[in-house]
Amino acid sequence: MSPIPTGGGGISPPVIIGSAPPPLHHLHYFGAASSGGGRLRDRSPRLSVGTIGSEMRRHRVDSFSGSTIPPTSPNMLHKGSPFNQGAGRGRGVMSDSHMQKTYHEAMRQRRTSLPANSLALGKLSQITGSSLSEAKGLIADMLMSRELPGNVATCLRAVATLLEQRPNHMNGLNDFGLPCVVENPYSGEQLHVGASKPRVSNITFSTVTSATGLPTIAAEPNKARSSRQVLSPTFHPSSLAWPRGAMDNASAYGAEDCSYWKPEQHDSTSTNQTSTSTSTSTITSAPPNHNHSHNHHTSEHLRKESVSRKESGSHVDTVVTTIDGQRYDTKELDGDQDLADVEDWGFPIFNFAKKYPKTCLSRLTYTVFRQADLFRIFKVSPIKFFNYFHALEKGYWEIPYHNRIHAADVLHGCFYMSVHPVKPQIGPPPSPDSLLPPPTTAAIPIMSSMSTLELMALYTAAAMHDYDHPGRTNAFLVAAEDKKAILYNDRSVLENHHAAESWRLLCHSENSFIENLDAAETKRFRYLVLEYILATDLKQHFEIIMTFNEKTNDMDLTNESDRLLLAKLMIKMADINSPTKPYNLHRQWTDRICEEFYEQGDEEMRRGMVITPYMDRNDAQVAKLQDSFIAHVVSPLAVAMNEAGLLPILPGLIEPEMMINLKHNHQKWLNEIEIINASTAANCNGALSNGVIEEESTASDSPDPRKDSPSLDSELD
Ligand SMILES: Nc1nc2c(ncn2[C@@H]2O[C@@H]3COP(=O)(O)O[C@H]3[C@H]2O)c(=O)[nH]1
């Protein structure tokens, strides 16, 4: 897909021909992604209207031919040039000779083809009714003259005829049948679009987020640093070596760029604190090595002394100390043997959490960010990175399931699904009679189809996605009229809470590891993080799966919204991944979620509320709960992703280990149900022969899982 040229197209600010352009808005020309062999590259340098504006100031456009007119002196405008269509300003009657000179000048410059720059054509759609009649009047006056050369008269009559055709922008459409007015995503103001078809980047852009309702910026920010290298099929994360040249100089995220969510004003000390924080070292990805041992040269690379003021933390040599005194040695992290297995699906996360009960999430996030080279690409300050992710992990409660281990597990799941090569079976099927060879089926990691910004947003959202989870379901919070339910109007209460509060945490300047993203990247990052977190609400589960199943045949990963849908599937799959894990891990997660459900059931009992099915610890039905969860929630998603070829198949296997585990674990629960039913039946028979009917035998009838399962009831209907 060829890159769309910059400069032309985009959204042109409203300009009345002949008048000085309106105050300029920080509008960005939306870059276009172009793909080269599946590699996503963002290019087309962003052009602020400031540049365009000076162009406009320098050149006006002939309202008739669309050609640009060299700068005119104000007095020429003042003399009532036919191009000065300003309402009532400086209009007068031109002399014949002057008119002819002007007309010939205009005709000389007339374009032979439509200008590429919609700015030039933009003016055409600004011709107002009064201008038309004025122009027709002028032409009628000229045609009255007897000295007019024949050819000029003929031309003038032709122009008059043209002017008789009223542009259809009178009914709100311009010459291309496109709306004349669009929303400026930055200022929200109405903008008049030029007559030319506004360049729609080949990245279809979403206009609003379900969370903020604000228009989002359209396309991928176009910094070269967002480009991605195609990872070789034999890719192994630890062999990651990102192109050095890929990064351009990040534009500082200046205060003047701050947008509506600018970090909260903290007390003066903290504000002063961070304004002085400096950290000159950056963390880079491990140089290529294939024996999984993390290369210590990376730490050598970090040996630069970089000391920052104590207040926001420090980074001395390879040791980062956060604002609250938590110490991280990146050299030790790079060599952590546990983290060497981070790309294994069976990564022993509970062992890791036992070793680092307070920092398992920040440590895993560091490893993932480093493997994806995000520190280098986005100039992430190690101090602010660890400040944020440690504050984030401290915000997870010490509860059985929705704790920082779960957040780390979801991050690990997103990492696993993004870094291992897959063979996506998406997009239009090759036509059977096509003479072309079938599209390459080389396996490539999903991450090589995503931009680095999308990847950083996915990993960050995974770490954020259950922040400050109270261990209760949305249904419980709504029934209990919890203040969060009131705040979020009973809609995706937990998910909105996780997103809002984890983002609020990020707004503290000492935590703002995204400070070097520019305004466009920051807005897009926020949009993506919100979309990813809100997608974890199971209420949208089947809608998202259905959307994906309907799109599978025309998924286009060079299309921003298709990549968004794919990333939503990934974080969702990671969020309910337990049944796809090796049984020992799945069993631990099962025990944890059940204990958390029982704690909710205990509270429901205390409050005199109806105990949610499957949440009564005195009526445990774990096998049935898991059977229904696997059959009705996990399998529909896992099967959809597997059929689309989106789940990694590691060397030596013929299908994804996630699917192997899922079938194995489901069968185990079914076997357990069989055993329970058999023993219940035996009890019944015994009771019957002894004339006693066991009360609990009726309880073993499996209730409709759709109706009663706690993980289904409150979230899915
Ligand atoms: N029954 C059951 N529900 C689960 C399991 N794992 C996750 N869930 C549910 O899936 C939900 C996904 O979103 P949440 O994290 O909010 O809450 C999660 C749980 O309610 C599991 O192993 N069994």
Automatic annotation (TrEMBL):
Question: What family is reported?
Answer: Belongs to the cyclic nucleotide phosphodiesterase family.
Q: Where is the PDEase domain?
A: 321-676
Instruction: Tell me what organism the protein belongs to.
Output: Caenorhabditis angaria
Question: What name has this protein been given in UniProt?
Answer: Phosphodiesterase
Region (Disordered) residue ranges read 219-244, 264-316, 693-717
Q: What keywords sit in the KW lines?
A: Hydrolase, Metal-binding
**Protein EC:** 3.1.4.-
Q: Which cofactor does it need?
A: a divalent metal cation
CDD domains in the cross-refs: HDc
